[in-house]
Every structure is written in structure tokens, then in C-alpha cells.
Amino acid sequence: MVTEAFITLVFSRPRDPHAEPAFRHMVNEVLEAAGHLPAVIIPHFYDAMPGGPVFTYLRRLTTDIILLAPLYPRAAQLVLRANGLRYRLARQTDDVPQRQNQSDRRLWAFDYREYGSFEVLRNAVAALVAEYLQGAGSLAGERPLVEEIEEATRSRWYPVIDDEACVNCFECLNFCLFGVFDVNTEGRVFTAQPDQCRPGCPACARVCPAGAIVFPLYPDPKIAGGDVVEEGQIIPLVDLKSGIGTVTTPQKPSVAGNSSQAPRPTGDRADDKESHPPTKQTLQQWLCQADDDAH
Ligand code: SF4
Ligand code: SF4
After folding, report:
1. Burial level of 295, CB count in 10 A (0-12/13-18/19+)?
2. Mean pLDDT of 112-122
3. What is the CATH number of domain 160-214?
4. Which residue owns the Cα nearest ligand 1 atom 8?
5. What's the pLDDT tens digit per position in 45-59?
6. Domain boundaries of the chain, sorted by first residue
7. What pTM value is reported for the model?
8. d(CA 222, CA 216)
9. To test ligand 1's pocket by mutation, which of 163, 164, 169 has the most ligand atoms within 8 angstroms of CB?
10. Helix, strand, coil % (nearest 5) of the chain?
């Protein structure tokens, strides 16, 4: 069933089946903290096929999306775009931008590999939901509707093009020996045969003069769609956390858009960002820990 609600939580599973228990735990925690929203659990959506159940479902969604996935936000946006789903990528710490028209759908993408602690991720989503719900009425009391979309996926490897950055120079088209790229009816380069790409190879991303080719699962963040926003342009999520405390359910800040008015954390957590700055990959390590525990 596709919901008529205005925002949907989408959880994309990790590839590693051993991380599944940790993933499920994360889903439950986030639903508890940011609950009362419809939610859907999907396989790792980079591996989903364009005509398969995952993208068929997502194409029918008319809502904004909060996406939790093991991909950089820009990569997540481009994978969706490669499958016909165009979303405006919103920063988690922005004021919630107004929807400009019916087709202007917004995407808040959380890369759950990157969070310094599970609590930070949970609280960041809860804060966003609270901000989003301002003026939209409370959903308190409604039961979250959680769906799960199954698709028999395999590990794929292919480039996604940022068509807003692409200067249509044809470098990639001329460079690739495997027919991955072609030109569409508008004369624009596009990824015509993604699965012809050689697994693990990011060569064309290196020849693209515009940095428009992204391989979402490549280890180098510059090629995998890691955030290119200049330092200082966005507020680190740990700062957002310090403003919202340890909420467990969506709380409306007392002053619109002013998180400094929200309750301060109590106890040792109040100064976490100074004394224990979260390090990248910690949540990923946590997922790996679940892997170890499963053995
Ligand atoms: S090399 Fe880059 S900029 Fe040139 S056509 Fe390909 S994607 Fe576009
Ligand atoms: S990585 Fe290599 S095989 Fe894959 S699309 Fe680029 S040039 Fe072609």
C-alpha cells in the first residue's frame, strides 16, 4: 500500500546480511524516536532494478522522504534520479524549505554509516521530524505504518550521472569500452547499460571534467558522492544534537527554527561534542560488532 501522508521514512538495508540484526535494531529505535510516520523498509536500493518492486513502489510515493541508507546523501539522490525519481536534496539542519509545487519533492538522506553514535542518528532524525511537523499538525496517537518491500537483489556496480553537473562533453562516452554510456533523444549522455560496467572500476569518474560521475560504493568519498559542501556551510549534526537533548519522541521546539530554545541535554551528554566528538564509521563499526555477535 502506498501512503497518502506527506512524509515517509525509508530504510534501506545494508548489503551484508550479518548486519541485519543491527539494522533492525536501528529501525526500531528510529521509529520509536521519530515514530507516527509511515515507514518502508527496502533492500539496498543501489542494487534494486529499475523495473523491480522497490522502484515501482518508490515511484508511486508522492511524499517527501527521509531516507536512511548506507550511501552518501548525494549518491542516494543520484541513484534515485537514475531511476526516474527526482528529489531536491535538503540539508538535515536547514529550516524545512517550502514545497514549491506538487512535484517538488524533498529528500533528507542520512548515511547511517557515518554517525558517531547510534543515539546521534536517532536524535537527528527525531529533530528533523519535529521541525518538519511544525505547522503540519501532530501525528501523535497514530500508529506508524511500516511496510517492507522485498526484491531479490544482487550486488550491482554502475555509475550514476549528476545531470545538473554534467557539461555533456562526451568524455565518458568516448572513454568507456563497454557501452555503458549512450546519448538520449535530447542529445544528452546517460547511463544506458549500467550493468555492463566493470565491477570495482571507477575509471570514467576520473576522466569526467565536471565531477559528474559517481560510483556510490567506491571507497574514495570524492568518487562515491561524498559531501562536497564547503566547510562551515552546514552545521555538524553533533551540534544539532546538543540543541535537542535526548528526545525519544518528536518534540516541537518552543521557538520556530531556533533550536537553541530547545531543552539542553542533561548529565554527561551535555558536553559530548567537546569531550567525545563522534568519529566517522563508528556506527559502521557498531554494525560490524553485530556481525561479530552473530557468529
Ligand atoms: S564526462 Fe562527465 S561531464 Fe562529460 S558527458 Fe560524461 S558525465 Fe557529462
Ligand atoms: S568504470 Fe569503466 S567500464 Fe564502468 S562505465 Fe566507467 S569506463 Fe565504463
Report:
1. exposed
2. 82
3. 3.30.70.20
4. 166
5. 999 999 999 999 999
6. 7-154+232-294, 160-214
7. 0.77
8. 10
9. 169
10. 35, 15, 55
